[in-house]
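To make this tangible, we now present a fold written out as tokens:
***
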Amino acid sequence: MAEVLGWKPRASIVAKCDRKRVLSSWASYCGDMAPAEFEIEFSSVRRLTPRQFVEKLLKELGVRGIVAGENYRFGYKAAGDATELRVMRQSWGQVSSTRVRRALAVGDMKCVSQLLGRQHRLIMNASKDQEGFPGGKHKLSVPKSSLLNLAPKEGLYEKCYLCIGEDDDRASSCRVVVDTGYVHIEMDDEVDVGVCNRVGTQDLRLLRIEFGDSQS
């Protein structure tokens, strides 16, 4: 920025080699995850309007939140301020459980992922003694009475994953059909077909399905 605007060089407050340590110290404020750092070429954004700049952060860089002081200014010729950021946030809509539930109700998994910042995970309580687990060679049908959280709208969902193991150390690709009474998990032919026989064991006591962004 200084080079583009012709400012005199000045030393950073934090040495570049020390930035990783500083960012790591913020982990306790960020869900026990150290923030990642990357740079944007100032010349590529210097003429963007405030709205264009924020849209770039959201759509191209996947930014989930912005922290700014009250006197912060941004955009071409510093046209935007913290007040405008709040207005933009209201116009784009806040993340809320109500919005997530509405998106699940219509099967809009892309919107659900955007709101949650992750893919929706459906969890079912599996027991070999539980009635209604008819298993085929590549298919499991789980009654909705076994669900531990909210399922999406009835329909076919492609590009899903069955997470196996307590630490999700293995994932099998599948597609999911949700109907009025069951959640049907249809696994790819090439995966280990023995997974169906392990329902209710330590590996698959809880069935965990992560949904992709597509609904057929």
Confidence is low (pLDDT under 50) at residues 129-136. The two ends are 47 Å apart (CA to CA). The CA atoms of residues 12 and 19 lie 11 Å apart.
